[in-house]
Amino acid sequence: MAQNIIKLTKSGVEKLKNELEDLKKNKRPAVIDRIKKSKDYGDLSENAEYEDARNEQSFIEGRIQEIEHMLKYSEIIQSKHAGEISLGSVVKVQMDGEKLEYEIVGSAEADPLSGKISADSPIGSSLVGQKAGSKVVAKTPGGDMEIKIVSVS
Question: Are 147 and 95 in contact (CB under 8 A)?
């Protein structure tokens, strides 16, 4: 079965590696210790602390598997064309009179509150392939947005 490649920036890969290390070295042992201690509180069927610790352990193990999968099938992206917006580009734009800066990333790494938008998002997809000085219209759920591209790096 063919796996889909997960496109990440170099900093995104490092962030995932750091999170994985923290989960394995700190959070996993802490939750295991918490489970051991909660067993001393009595009947496990009525032990809220035990149930909470088991739920946290499930979350941690799931996240470890998710990160390992992402790293296994990741491809580090780099801007391919000088001056043209692609994955890995940092773009300064002007929208609704406001100047904003975005990094164009793969969907697995997107975090709009940190200025990282997916190339698959309405705004990201309208920017990919464009150059500084261009004006584009992004079709968003809230309506069309006119975007002026100030610079690309």
Answer: yes
- Model-level pTM? 0.74
Pull the structure tokens for residue 109: 């790494």
Angle at 40 (CA atoms; ends 36, 45), nearest 5 degrees: 95
- Residue closest to 9 by CA, chosen among 107, 81, 144, 94: 107
Per DSSP, 131 falls in state B
- Could you please state the CATH topology (level 3) that the domain comprising 90-152 is classified under: Chitinase A; domain 3 (3.10.50)
- pLDDT tens-place string over residues 75-99: 888 766 667 898 888 999 999 889 9
Residue-wise pLDDT for 124-144, tens only, equals: 999 999 999 999 999 988 889
CATH code: domain 6-76 is: 1.10.287.180
One-letter amino acid of 83: G
Q: How far, rounded to the nearest angstrom, does the alpha carbon of residue 48 sit from its chain's CA centroid?
A: 32
Rounded to whole angstroms, the Cα distance separating 27 from 21 reads 9
